[in-house]
Structures are given as structure tokens and as C-alpha cells.
Amino acid sequence: MNLSLGPLQYYWPREDVLAFYEQAAKWPVARVYLGESVCSRRHVLRLADWLALAEQLAEAGKEAVLSTQTLIESESDLKTLRRLVDNGSFQVEANEWGAVRLLSEAGLPFVAGPTLNVYNHETLGVLAGLGAVRWLPPVEMSRDTLAALLDRVRNPHPRPLPQAGKGEAVSLRDARLDEIETEVFAYGKLPLAYSARCFTARHYNLPKDDCRFRCLDHPDGLTLSTREGEPFLTINGIQTQSAGVYSLLNELDSLRELGVAALRLSPQSRHMGRVVEAFHAALSGGNVAADVLARFMPGKPVDGYWYGHAGRESSFDQV
Amino acid sequence: MPLELICPAGNLMSLKAAVDNGADAVYMGFRDNTNARAFPGLNFDEAQAAEGLRYAHERGRRVLLAINTYPQPDTWTRWVGAIDRAATLGMDAVILADAGLMRYAAENHPGLRLHLSVQGSATSYEAINFYREHYGIQRAVLPRVLSLAQVENVVKNTEVEIELFGFGGLCVMVEGRCLLSSYCTGESPNSAGVCSPAKAVQWKETPTGLESRLNGVLLDRYGKNEKAGYPTLCKGRFEVAGETYYALEEPTSLNTLDLLPEMLAMGIAAIKIEGRQRSPAYVAQVTKVWRAAIDAVKKNVAGFKPMPVWMAELNKLSEGQSHTLGAYHRPWK
Can you tell me the ipTM of this complex? Predict the structure, then answer.
């Protein structure tokens, strides 16, 4: 099991992004996902810049993967998507099914991102057949559901095809399904929803088309609290995240047992190196106390989803 | 046939109300979590579905079955069973979101017409054409996130019929890409077929006003003269940087009567009315107004103007006090 640095969800000034990835090149992560996957208006880095970063990280021994935009609205979004798919050097993470279409048509292996809604083995089989070599479950998927899904991947039931033969049922196994690697979102504020509306612009009473890039002022998003002052969600442009920080640091044994190949750590503006270190140390057999990691979190730790509960619940509360 | 009217049928009475008042087709779900309105007391068992089909078919209307949640590995057979039953019953189409399930339907029931559900989150023609090429879908329902110009671009670049939401509740998030409900309660539309489930709702009268909570999380607090609506998570009042407001969306609903001429001109195949959870009386009234409006726009596109009496009728019925054109109208974003 190794570590992935997930795609940057926030909008940071250019120099901050470059400095972040300069650091990341030295962190013990096996792969780094790059690119703007949240909002098409964000542009301090263009595709050429992301490709240059990918080159640098590849030279530093990292596997670089380009992540596609999750919500495609316009023809210009599609143009960007096609350029990503045709980049010629780096693997691509597909975050919606238009990207899946383009990648499979091009015959390219790809990563099936967490917003493709793979909730069962059959859909994973579809994606494996189309060229997915790695996949992420939806962030709401519990350990038990993931276990059941992976069990069916390893022990497939034959899929009957009634009309294929002359009255004879033919069973088909999805190509490459048993080789697909599972990556699990294991650290960070959870990406929960996407909208046509920009909630950051709305907060500032600005129209989305003239948002003045206020996301730049909120490097870890804007906290949305209940009227009782309890942090609940995080506003990040058109994306809504949890206010709680998901952490599976204490779940490494069960993740290993499931055969998970990689853990995704989602970038935050401060202490990211310390977070990576903590996971790396724990993976290497070290004993990392949960409260050590909590000090580096931009919110309170949560892990309800992993146990099949409400996502905002936290087993850390009971310690 | 452009601009078909597709109306919600939460039960047999609503189905009849929709058919009697001019729906071209109704959509329904089976009585379990295979559809995104898995509410207690709602939806159809097999006998009721057969009766609904008979009623609609005798009057030349069609019935679409929503199987639009995402099957889980352990319950895969329940979803597959729903597809098989839909085919046996003679449903005019099934509305699906999950790619694996779509493959099952295409392979095992090649005669069964497939619609891509709004829960499939397909917002581009590339995504829609994926389902067309692989599973032969005939129609796609677009999430309520595109502007009209963007919708038109989709229509121009696919042979798949496009269905749009026209009236009713308004999801501010991309359908199928919203986990707010499970973050708060453990159940989301994708995995449990419910958003902000009623069993998690708590109302409480307090000295500072009436409070609505969802699984303990305070969604809103209402003053004496404020009308309290159903506590849908994204329509609560929250605090952001010291300011309390509807941070995500006001309790407003969608009404696109004004846009009918544009929708007709760009070749929209069907208009969907949201609200399988609403009463038969509601379905009857909304269907009646929309039937009249669609007939009017088809008769005279250039001269079409929503009649004040239609708007008044719809305003009376809507959930919030106000209506919006939603994302179809760019400034909303």
C-alpha cells in the first residue's frame, strides 16, 4: 500500500501552488494527481503549467496523473478535457463519463475517479473493460460495502448472456477486472457536492461570471456553520466539502486486509508535509497517535462513512 | 413529438390524476430503494404497477419506471430483479443511472427502452453519447445545472432525446453528485434513494423560535411570522463568516413556463415535472396547467406568453414562496 497526493481542490495563488509541488516532490508519495478538477474559471495554472509540473514530479520519481474537471458544462470545458486526454505523456483520472468515453476511444489506460459513482462490481467491470487500471470508490462508501464489492471482483459470479449463443448461456468475465487497483480517499475534507452555482461568489454577493476569484482568499475553503456555531460544511467555489477532516490513519490494518493499493491524501494549505509524514510513518509500521495528526488538521477529524454511519460522525470522539 | 409532458406518479391516484389531466407519460418507482424517492407509503408494488400501466395504455399514454439509485454489491439482485419485472410488465422505458445496471438491461432485455436518469449526472454530450454507444439509450434527463445555451449545445451534438426538468423542487447540486444528505444522516439519494430523510427530521418549539434539525444538525430556526418548509439540507440557513443566510439555496422551486418557446425551438423532447412525493391533487393541478401551456406554445410559438392564471395557480402550489428559472437563466449561478 502506498500514498497518493490527490488533486488540489482549492484555488491558490500561482506561487503557492508551485511551492507546494516543489515540496511534494520530496514527500514519500508514490503518485501525484494534478490539474484543475473543480472550477473552469480558475486559471493561474494552465494545462502547459500542469504538464510542466507533471514532468518535474516524474523526474523526482513520482507517477504523475492528470485529473479531469468533475462538472463539464460548456464546449470550452470539453476542449480542455480533450487536450488533457491527448496530452501524450501522462495517465488521466476520469471524473465524469465524458472523459471515460474519450479515454476509452483513445485506447488509453486511465484512473476511474471517485465521482464516477462506482457502487458495485458490475460497474467496476464496465470500467475495467474500458481501460481503467485504478479506481476510487465514492467517498461515502463504507468499509463493509467496499469489502463486499472487492469480494465479488475476486470471486466473480458468471454473467449470463442469454442472446449470445443458441439457447446456451455464455458467461463473460470482464477483462482486466482482477488487475484493477483500488485507491481510497483516506485524508482530507471530503468533496461532497458540485453545483452550477458558485457558493463563494454567492457569499460575496458576486455573480459567478464576475466572481473576482474570491476563492483565492480561502486556501482551505470557507467554513459553513450551523446557527449554533457548529462547523458543518466547507464552501469551495462550486464544490461543497465537509467541515470535518476525513482520516483513515487508524484503519490501515483493515485497508491492507481489503487489498487496497493506495491511499489518497487530499491537499491542504498548511502542514501537508506533516500529514504525509504521519501516514508514511504509520504505513512503515510506526505508531502514530491520532491526536498527533489532529494537530495538523484544518478541522475536526471524522470517519463516519467508513463505518457506514453519517459521514460527520467520528470514532475519535469516543477515545 | 417534441415537448412531451412527463408527470410524477407517487401512487395510483396520482398516476390517474396525471393521465386524466393530460400527461403524455408518467414516471413511477417500485416500492423499495431501487428509486430515488424511496419514501414510506410511496410507490408501486407489482399489481399496482400493472394497474397503472393498464390505465395509462388504455388512454394512449406511457409509463416510465425509475430504477435510478445505485445498486450495492450485496443487493445487486434486487436492482436486476426490478429491471426484469419492468420488462415483464411491459414498461415503456426504464430510467437508469448506474452503468453496470444499464449494461445488464441492454444485454438481457434488448427491447426495453432505456433513459439515462438525472442521477447519472451526465451534463455533456460526450457523457450522453457514451451511454448511447454502449447501451443504446434513447433519452437523457439533464441535471438542473446547465444554462439554456449549454442545453442547446448538448441537443445539437447528440441523437439522444433530451428531457429537462420544468417544474417542482430544485436541486442546487448536480444530481447524483451530492452526498450532503449522507454526510448528515448516513443516507444519500445515490445509495439509499432519499435526500434529507423524513425519519431524521426533528421539529422543536424553543424560546428563540421553531427549530428544524436533521439528525441533530440545526438546519434552520424560524421566527413567528416565518413560514417553515420541509428541512431539505441545502435549503437551510447557515452561518458563513459571521453572516447568517441561505448559504446554498433559498427554499424556492423551479418554474420554467417562461422558457417554453426556447425549449420547443431547440428541440427538447420532454419536460419533466418533479414531485412523486406530492399529493394527487397537486399532480392534477400542475399537469393541467402544463398541458395547457405546452398546447399553447405548440399552437403559437411567437405569440406565447404564460397566462397570469397559470402562474398564479403554480405559485399557489409551489413549495417555497418563490420561483426561479434556476441554472437555465445564467445570473442564477
Answer: 0.95
CA nearest to B222 within chain A: A227
pTM listed for this prediction: 0.95
Is there a contact between A303 and A46 (Cβ–Cβ < 8 Å)? no
Could you read off the pLDDT tens digit of each residue along chain A, which spans 319 residues?
A: 999 999 999 999 999 999 999 999 999 999 999 999 999 999 999 999 999 999 999 999 999 999 999 999 999 999 999 999 999 999 999 999 999 999 999 999 999 999 999 999 999 999 999 999 999 999 999 999 999 999 999 887 766 665 544 444 444 567 788 899 999 999 999 999 999 999 999 999 999 999 999 999 999 999 999 999 999 999 999 999 999 999 999 999 999 999 999 999 999 999 999 999 999 999 999 888 777 899 999 999 999 999 999 999 999 865 4
Cβ-Cβ pairs closer than 8 A, A with B, add up to 222
* Contacts for B255 with CB less than 8 Å, ≥ 6 apart: B166, B167, B311, B314, B318, B323, B324, B325
Q: Residue A71 and residue B172: Cβ atoms within 8 Å?
A: no
Structure letter (DSSP) for residue B44? B
| Distance (Å) from the alpha carbon of B93 to chain A's nearest alpha carbon | 20
